[in-house]
């Protein structure tokens, strides 16, 4: 995995008990599962099978991997046709990257409703009023879309980085995602 639970212990992507230290805790295990599943899914959607397999091999020993893999994961400053650009990497700047925003959205979707032996349910809370997760989801999703496929000038999206470095990362079927809004449309 490129990111871990520490991306969600504070800030705008905060998930309660994300890194509580209790190895068997439900929230810790669920978050690990979501990270493992959806990080792989997103990277396959963006890179395709061949590049994904190359990245997976490089992640085994990133220190010794080719510079292109280090740049993809950790980010880099680079120039194209005399113009300077910044790619924050899959890890993102200060644990605020596209993978973290995508994983956060997937976690929110899974955590909203539980499946129990009596059917689908939302947990009741005492001394609080339940609120919709939609506002947080839409904000995180919009940030993800911008970092993943947006048209940015200096700070490049993943799609722009891959296009700028086409000789290193020949992309085929880059999957684009759609926007969402507060109305679920």
Quick summary:
With 185 residues, the chain is mainly alpha-helical. 43% of the residues lie in helices and 9% in strands.
Characterise this structure:
The protein has helices at about 25-60, 65-75, 100-110, 135-150, 160-165, and strands at about 75-80, 85, 115, 120. The chain has one domain (about 5-165). α1 (about 25-60) runs antiparallel to α3. The strands form two sheets. A two-stranded antiparallel ribbon has the order 1-2. The chain is mainly alpha-helical. The longest helix has about 35 residues, at about 25-60. The protein is elongated, with a radius of gyration of 18 Å. The mean pLDDT is about 90. The two termini are about 30 Å apart.
Q: What structural keywords apply?
A:
9% strand, elongated, two-stranded antiparallel ribbon, mainly alpha, 185 residues
Write the layout of secondary structure elements.
Layout lengths: L25 H34 L7 H8 L1 E5 L2 E5 L10 H15 L1 E3 L2 E3 L12 H16 L8 H7 L21
Antiparallel strand pairs: 1-2, 3-4
Helix pairs in contact: 1-3, 3-4
Count of structural domains: 1
Please work out how many helical segments DSSP would assign: 5
**Which runs of at least 5 residues are low in confidence (pLDDT < 50)?**
none
Structural class: mainly alpha
- The proportion of residues forming helix, as a percent range, comes to 40-55%
**Can you tell me the overall shape?**
elongated
Sequence of secondary-structure elements: HHEEHEEHH
Strand percentage:
5-15%
Please count the beta strands (DSSP E, at least 2 residues each).
4
**Rg from C-alpha positions?**
18 Å
Biggest sheet descriptor: 2 strands, antiparallel
Distance, first to last CA: 32 Å
């Amino acid at each position: 995995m490129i990111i871990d639970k520490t991306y969600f212990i504070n800030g705008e992507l905060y998930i309660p008990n994300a890194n509580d230290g209790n190895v068997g805790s439900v929230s810790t295990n669920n978050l690990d599962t979501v990270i493992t599943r959806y990080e792989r899914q997103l990277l396959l959607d963006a890179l395709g099978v061949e590049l994904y397999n190359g990245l997976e091999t490089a992640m085994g020993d990133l220190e010794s991997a080719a510079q292109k893999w280090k740049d993809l994961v950790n980010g880099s400053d680079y120039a194209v046709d005399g113009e300077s650009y910044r790619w924050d990497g899959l890890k993102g700047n200060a644990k605020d990257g596209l993978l973290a925003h995508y994983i956060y959205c997937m976690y929110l979707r899974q955590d909203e409703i539980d499946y129990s032996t009596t059917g689908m349910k939302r947990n009741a809370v005492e001394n609080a009023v339940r609120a919709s997760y939609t506002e947080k989801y839409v904000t995180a999703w919009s940030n993800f879309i911008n970092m993943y496929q947006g048209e940015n000038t200096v700070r490049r999206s993943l799609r722009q980085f891959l296009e700028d470095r086409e000789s290193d990362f020949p992309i085929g079927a880059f999957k684009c995602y759609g926007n969402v809004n507060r109305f679920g449309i």
